[in-house]
Design goal:
Layout: E1 11-15, E2 18-23, E3 26-31, H1 36-45, E4 61-69, E5 73-82, E6 85-92, E7 98-102, H2 106-118, E8 140-148, E9 151-158, H3 166-181
């Protein structure tokens, strides 16, 4: 089979720096220059699939919020609803990266989703849509992935505590809520 020289021609620009790619009836919305490949390689290393490649069905939802701290690895909070069952997971990148299910009742995770959805986790713009972002040599970056039904989107915020626009402050509230709801004490 001959390789398609226009394999990336299915990308269509929807606004400055944002592209949509339609793959197998999944609409993918990823801002330019996000570290998708590094997240994908990490996810595969711990035995998971990249979120945009997972099979999804109507009514299913998954949110992954990745936090990277320079030289300290990667951590993630995962909230998912599959077949009307809610679960929460945390990925810890310590000496040996691992995924841990955080044992809470399904209603706990459903309520958390309602709270972060009310903050707009599914609608916040990528930080690169704003001008005059504060760049720091050290700090923390967040990469958010959301897949609902057949729609996938991703965006990021680096050092939201340093940014001057309101959306960064809203994102900080989401992170604070996630950190308070996910236990980081695992055996």
């Amino acid at each position: 089979e001959k390789e398609n020289p226009n394999q990336y021609s299915r990308y269509k620009k929807i606004e400055q720096g944002r592209y949509v790619y339609d793959v197998s009836d999944i609409e993918i919305d990823i801002p330019a220059l996000l570290p998708v490949e590094s997240i994908d390689s990490f996810v595969k290393k711990i035995g998971m699939e990249p979120l945009y490649e997972t099979p999804f069905y109507k009514g299913n939802l998954e949110v992954r919020v990745w936090a990277t701290v320079r030289y300290n690895g990667l951590e993630a909070f995962i909230l998912q609803r599959h077949n009307d069952i809610w679960r929460g997971y945390q990925i810890l990148d310590e000496i040996c990266p691992r995924i841990v299910e955080v044992e809470k009742p399904p209603s706990y995770w459903q309520n958390l989703w309602v709270e972060i959805e009310n903050f707009g986790i599914d609608k916040l713009p990528d930080m690169d849509t704003f001008e005059n972002n504060v760049i720091a040599r050290d700090g923390i970056s967040y990469f958010v992935e959301l897949k609902r039904d057949n729609y996938y989107r991703a965006y990021h915020y680096s050092n939201p505590q340093l940014q001057k626009y309101g959306e960064a402050g809203t994102f900080e509230k989401i992170v604070k809520l996630l950190k308070s709801r996910f236990s980081t004490e695992h055996e």
